[in-house]
Amino acid sequence: MLNRSVLRIRACGQDSLPGPCSSRPARGHRQLCLASVIALVCLVATGCRQDMHDQPRLEVFEASTFFDNGMASRQLPAGTVPWGQLREDTHLWEGKDAAGEFVDALPMPLTRELVERGQTRYEIFCSVCHDSVGGGRGMIVRRGYKQPSPLYEQRLKDMPAGYFFDVITAGFGLMSSYKNQIPVEDRWAIVAYVRALQLSTSALAELPQGVQAEFHQALAAPVDEPEAEENH
Length: 232
Ligand code: HEC
Fold this sequence. Notes:
Layout: H1 2-13, H2 26-47, H3 90-94, H4 112-125, H5 127-130, H6 139-142, H7 154-157, H8 161-170, H9 184-202, H10 209-220, H11 226-231
């Protein structure tokens, strides 16, 4: 098909040759032929298109005659757990004890490395909204996103460590879950760092009164970008 239309273009270019294009003026013909070739190319291109998300394979649990159970996937044999998916440790995986209450401790030893790891993860994943000191004035907030409570406000200082793990894992209100982006140990490292941020603000009480007032004033001032006001 394609070969024929290429031939046709050639034919149109040479007016002396007989063919479908030769009975009209040359310029109009060329345009007509060009349009039909473009239409043909479009047709061929879209006809053969295979979206990457629609590949010739079976989806998980799709119907199939291959296995007896009529599905493309095998069911887990009863009483088995896939390698690496045993999540019995509720402290580590949910931040909760066996009774389902938030635990106020890390599931691993608190070390300087852990806090430093938490700092880098916090800067990457949280500071864009919560800002580097946890005040809730990150760049996304300045551009109009909801302003979260300061991480060092008393209510949050009183929350158990497991609560912060849960917020990162499950999300909270407008904040989405980060469990797919942040591995479980890193989530705990962030919790350790959030605690460090909270503690660091306790040092405020030891600053001279004037400096303290200045600090509080700066924190209480509205976010300075006009966009933030409009979109609140
Ligand atoms: C895209 C912006 C955004 C990012 C990124 C983000 N948060 Fe949030 N976070 C929010 C908002 C907004 C709220 C308040 C949600 C609401 O009230 O609907 C919030 C609330 C919270 C709260 C408070 C819950 C409470 O009881 O008030 C904690 C704790 C928290 N985030 C921790 C984190 C940590 C830790 C990270 C990084 C892993 C993070 N957030 C990343 C926007 C964000």
